[in-house]
Amino acid sequence: MSPLDGLAVPLVGAPLAGGPSTPALAAAVSDAGALGFVAAGYKTADEVALELEEVRRPAGRRFGLNLFYPARDEVDEQALTAYAERLRPEAERFGIEPGEPRWSDDDWDAKLELAAREAPAVVSFTFGCPEREVVETLRAAGSAVWCTVTSAEEARVAADVRADALVVQGREAGGHQGSFLAEAGEPLPTLGLLRQVARATDLPLVAAGGIASGEAIAAALAAGASAAQVGTALLLAPEAGTSEPYREALRGGRPTRLTRAFTGRRGRGLVNRFMRDHDRAAPRGYPQVHYVTAPIRAAARAAGDVEAINLWAGEAYARAAEAPAGEIVERLSAELQAAR
User: Fold this and answer.
1) What pLDDT, in 10s, does the model give residues 296-313?
2) Whose CA is closest to 125, among 50, 180, 58, 46?
3) Are 299 and 214 in contact (CB under 8 A)?
4) How many domains does the chain have?
C-alpha cells in the first residue's frame, strides 16, 4: 500500500530543513492523520538517528525522512571568492569571519545506510534524483521513495529510476527550489506544473507551493495531485523550531522573492536587507555559498537581527496560523471538505 493511501487527510508536512524541522512537528502532523517528515539536511547521520528514535515513539507512527541529494553545481570559483569578500562587512557587524566556500555531501552515505536500516514509510529526496540502485535498496527495506521535481523533464528522470511518487514543487513554494536539471527562467506555478507533470507520468503526485488553505488543497487535487504538501503553514506552530526573529517576520507584511543570496541555490523568502543588498551579486553555487553565509546567519539569529537571516516563506505565508500543528492539519482538512 502506498503511504498516500493510508492518510486520513491527503496532506504531507514539508521537511523544513534548517531549523524549523523537529521530531515533535513531524509527530504532530502524522498523529493528526497526515504524513509528517523528518528533515535530514544539515545534520549528521547520528543526529538524524536520534530524531528518528524520538519520532518512532509510540511504535507504529508513520512518517517520512527527507535527504538532500549531493548535487554538484558548476561554480565560478572566482565569483565565489569575490562573494565571500563582499560579505566580510556583514560578518564584521557581528564580530565574526565569513565562512569558507566548500562542497559537502551532507553525510550522504551514512544517511542512506540509516534510511535503509530504519525504513520509514517514505524516504524523499531534494536537489537530485537517486540512482535506481538506491531506490531499489530503500524499497526492499520497506520504504516508498519520493523525488522532488520542478519540471516535466525532472519527473521523467524520477520515473525512469522507478520512484514511487513525486513532490511537484511550484514557484510559490518557500525555501529552496528542488531543481536538479538546468534551471531555465522562472519556475512554473504549482497548478500549471502539476498539469504538465501529470501528462508526463502516471506516478502519484504531491503538490507543493502556495498551499495554506483547504481551497488550495482542493485545487491541487483537481489538477492531478493525490495529496498536498504544506510547509510555511506550519512555521508558527509551537512544535516548529522556527526562531523568534523568524516568527516575528512571518507576522509582518513583507513581500517574498526568489534569491540566491543566502545559499547559492534559488529559494523563496521574505525580502530583507541582506537579500536586497546581495541578491544580484550572489553566484550560483550550493552548498558553497551556504557555508559562506552560515556564520553570519547564525550570529544574526542570536542577535535577533531579522535583516541578515534567511526567512524562507512561501507566497501564502500570511495564512500561517499560530496554533498547534495538529490543529492546523485539522483546520485544513475541514476546509478541504467544505471546498469539495
Assistant:
1) 999 999 999 999 999 999
2) 180
3) no
4) 2
